[in-house]
Amino acid sequence: MTRAFDKSFLKVILLFAVLTTASVRAQTLALTMDDGPQLEQTPMLSPQQRNQAILAALSKYGVSAALFVTAGNGADRPEGYALAKAWGDAGHAIGNHTMTHPDLNSEKVSLADYQKEILDCDKIISTLPGYQKWYRFTYLREGKTPEKIDGMRQFLKQQNYRNAYVSLDTSDWRLNEELIAVLKKNPQADVTPIKQAYLSHIRQRAEAYRKLAFTLQGRDIPQVMLIHHNLINALWLGDVIAQFKDMGWKFTTPAAAFTDTVYQLTPRNTATGQSLLLSMAKSLLPAKFEGWERLVDDGDFEIEALKKQGQ
Description:
It is a single chain. Helix 7 packs across helix 8 (231-246) and helix 7 runs antiparallel to helix 12 (300-308). Strands 1, 2, 3, 4, 5, 6, 7 and 8 form an 8-stranded parallel β-sheet that branches. This protein starts with a helix and ends with a helix. It contains 12 helices and 8 strands. The chain is α/β, with parallel strands linked by helices and 311 residues long. Helix 2 links the parallel strand 1 (28-36) and strand 2. The chain is globular.
């Protein structure tokens, strides 16, 4: 009887181990970065140093990422073009994020002007190693009118461009603004609280979007995360990657992630934008589903917590 119990108990342990391993393996993440390469001056690091620090972190952890180029931020000049080329030379993908980052939802931005922004950017990035026919909507906004939404979908199809959806959206840009403001005020400031807030923000968003994927798809999907080519990631991208590894997540390439069936879907909701999962949720779930507040707060929670700490 004891032997039978031992065997049964062993089977339970093995089954648990298999299920746990399968769950860990099921959750993958593709890392994508928008708005680069940035030539703006920031505290601590030059544009070249920021770019190299980001690429060094990716190389250290063996992560293959994608840079979505906003050419007017630097790639339209020799020094910025060289930074973008360094991404392609390192084996990363290069995608299109317009020339000057206009907002398609704005009434001041016409469909024709927006499309010209994409084509002008394409002329620059198509000469880079790693170039892909991937387009990432600025602000993740696809237009507020049927004319713009349908017009862009037809345009991308005609140009053979993939809509480079995001499933795991972050507000790293907001915390980056806080970081720069603190350092401009005091270059010697202790920015450890901002680092901790950033890592906490990434973990919260990752767990929330993983949960939302299960709600909508009934499974783990290969998440495609959006962060930006900025100072906060030049300083702490390695910590972000290490945190995901500690969480048991595995990294995949953006190209591999985009082959998943979820990225072939087109949300019915006309207010498309933000995360693909959030757009789907607007179509399929109640307006205020569980946890929605923290997915649309643009980092307000973390900023408020930093203020309470005196940052």
